[in-house]
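Letters spell out the chain; backbone shape is given numerically. Both lines appear below:
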Amino acid sequence: MAQPVPAAPSVPAPGAPAAEVTLWRRIVRHRMLYLMFLPVAVYYIVFRYWPIGLAWIVAFKDLKLGMGVFDSAWVGLDNFRVMFEDPEIVNVLRNTVEISLLRIVVGFFPPIILAIMFHDLSSGRLKKWLQSAVYIPHFFSWVIIFGIVFAFFSTGTGFVNNVLEAMGLSRIEFFLSEGWFRPILIGSALWKEIGWSTIIYLAALSTIDAQLYEAAKIDGAGPLRRIFAVTLPGILSVVTFVLCLSLGNILFAGGEQILLFYNKAVLDTADVIETWVYREGLSRLQFSVGTAVGLFQSLIGMVVILAGNTLAKRYTGRGIW
């Protein structure tokens, strides 16, 4: 019986690199897939990457109302100089980093614990009901969240103060106290997002082989031991991924929430970069300064992500890429 003759390798055209010919043939072969992807690529270029490029340009210009980006005067680093010469900026940066770290530290572990608890529930109906209950606050706007928090902690008719008064204790002005501002801020943010943050961990938990739990049970491991021996190693890569991305928000303290929660009485504790940009960029029409601050935040966030990814790969062997 005659043996099949292998096909001769394709020969690139004279003068053309082999890799280029292969790429072009691949594009032609899958041209329908590339055509389907084209609208997506156009969307991201026009509505995502082009605005980013414009923002980088605006950060180095003096943008005025009625003038286009390219017609505005080039001012170099003057916008960054305005930010760092402001006498309030040191306190603003300190508040931003402190509140951001509080959000990361306080808000990082509860979703992992809650996801493990959901994963270990044996009742499917109870699990779905509880998951729906903790997901709902994520869909509330910060205005609604502030209304709920105000109903609990306001001085006049707040539920907590009514309970304190019934117990013979004096009322507390929670919204005018610098000591209570950050606990209320972080606590309400945690309540809003804890359920939604469990989704990625539940997806990771679903990929763990059930036979590993059976083997651990045969070896005599209890529920707590199985968590440390099977569950946590199984989701370590996802935990590392989420932590590295969270570090990128080190200069983003949640300005939308703080704008609703803060007031003059707690300004020294609550003033962060986003609120400073809101005052300087909108109230004083310094759009270029606000854009320069946004660029500064993004660059610092990128550096922190790169550093966190390097440390994670060195000590855990896992990272974002």
About this structure: The longest helix spans residues 89-120.
